[in-house]
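Changelog note: in this version the structure field was regenerated for every chain. One regenerated record is shown below for reference.
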Amino acid sequence: MTKNTKAIIWASVAVMALIIGGVTYEKQRPKKPVVHKDPIIKTAAQPAEQSPTTTPIETATSSPIVVATSTPITKIISRKPKSATISYGDAVVKYGFNRIQFAPGCLQAVPNQIATANPVTLMLDNRSDAWQAITIGSHLYNIAPYNYVIATINETALPINLYISCNQQKNVGQIILQK
């Protein structure tokens, strides 16, 4: 075995150890509640008296996630977090290829295009230290910093291309729903 091959193997082992250590730390670290006020963001497509309905759910880090549906929504409802939780790591595993990440600045969704069957449940993942207003088609999802939303999208007219906007950035991604 060459010196270079050994270095690559040890580097791979070190990276895996860091990943496993990070996951273990995340599962074992003390849970601190995050207190914040949900902003109400209105779009031109919604009447002035309407805003989205969201339901906070407690995650393993005790920061609320928002579970949303693709039905246009009328108001924000504040509820105490439920005891049933799913950690960030478990959500990443569960939603796998149905996860869309949004970085600071919202310049692009990653991945920026998904083609899937209707209905679809997606993990909208905010990797920014600020609130992100994500619009998919005509549906708005407000996501807290370093948090995520589980969004179920169900459209009646198929096939359809739903464009994704993040804050003021338009068309940062696209979801193609098919029958």
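Spot check on this record: The chain has a mean pLDDT of 75. The chain has two domains: 1-30, 55-178.
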